């Protein structure tokens, strides 16, 4: 099915349409000086395509949040979320196909770059089954893919530029169609701009930008002067999703209102300026930052400090053992739900922890959430298959002490072996060990076993049929032979 988006009218008075399916495969670059109508053009494109394709908008100035009222976009305020939270949000946006606006207003430029990169990373790294078509619009793209280093740190620039490069260069196979808008082509990284096949060029005054725009549209350089004469809302269009030859397009009207409207001229008020500005204000009329308390009367400085000393903060009583056990049980129940999701065993621990925190807040735990160390302990127990009541075994203190001496990433494997040894069950297979380690590599599983043996926590031997047996040091307990012969 072919879907055409009505952008407005062409120079001949005919409708100017954009092939949405072709746009998803070829990407779009919009360029023009400030005030030429780029935001109006993007708003028109977003409104007309909202019913057909999922959308994600990187909005550095909060201009597009009004789309949520009419078209149901989810607005994410980047100032209220961490980079890890935004990366997780990007992954969930792909999973649930939710149209979203990442509002970066009020965030300094370096954190804008980092948070946008994290969110784009979540969109890009989604599982293959969620690679459905998505229009990713980035306004003021020169902020996130600068051609040269500026006042931000090199680390922030590299992270942001890598995310934008992934979007424009590798995003097509993942269903991501990049639409980027910039004030100046000279400020935009060339490897990001070069991947676009569709162009809408607005009013431009600098010679270098006019020449680059003419080159991108396949026009002669002597024709580049025409970009200075374009009116507001007029763009030169070219590309497989637009037209095969350059033509002028007048963008049509939009349904929603931008929050970044241009200022309008208005007459000055007629009043006595001296009385308005220089009349002494009443105390209540002063702004908060201009109010000053009267100076304190002279007194002994030590007495003043003693009087100003804050009251001691009463610490809440420590939780009882029963409350601690109940809270840990609640954490374990929530963690089981997290680990029950598909492929949860192979997701990074940081992503699982973010999911855990979100579910704890949903359950109303407030500040009673596990720290990363406590979560890793719970995760190791769950991956090993331990259930309630394990601490009642007489061998459990020795097992717990040995696990604490190992690196955190190997504890789940040791606990898996310990559970099999305490139950007298067969030694876990390489596949089970790899899953407990969070990997799909059987070779890595065998290397982890060797590392734990080098630490003196276990001893590995084989029976006469070549089946692996693991003995726990300090307890004398060992597993039954594995169900299949070990591979060397």
TrEMBL record:
Gene3D superfamilies given in the database record: P-loop containing nucleotide triphosphate hydrolases
Pfam families linked to this entry: DUF87
Domain of life: Bacteria
Protein name: ATP-binding protein
A molecular function GO annotation: ATP binding
InterPro entries: ATPase_Atu1862_pred (IPR014588), HerA-like (IPR008571), HerA_central (IPR002789), P-loop_NTPase (IPR027417)
Start and end residues of each Helicase HerA central domain: 12-72
Record key words, sorted: ATP-binding, Nucleotide-binding
Key word Ribosomal protein present: no
Source lineage: Bacteria, Pseudomonadati, Pseudomonadota, Alphaproteobacteria, Acetobacterales
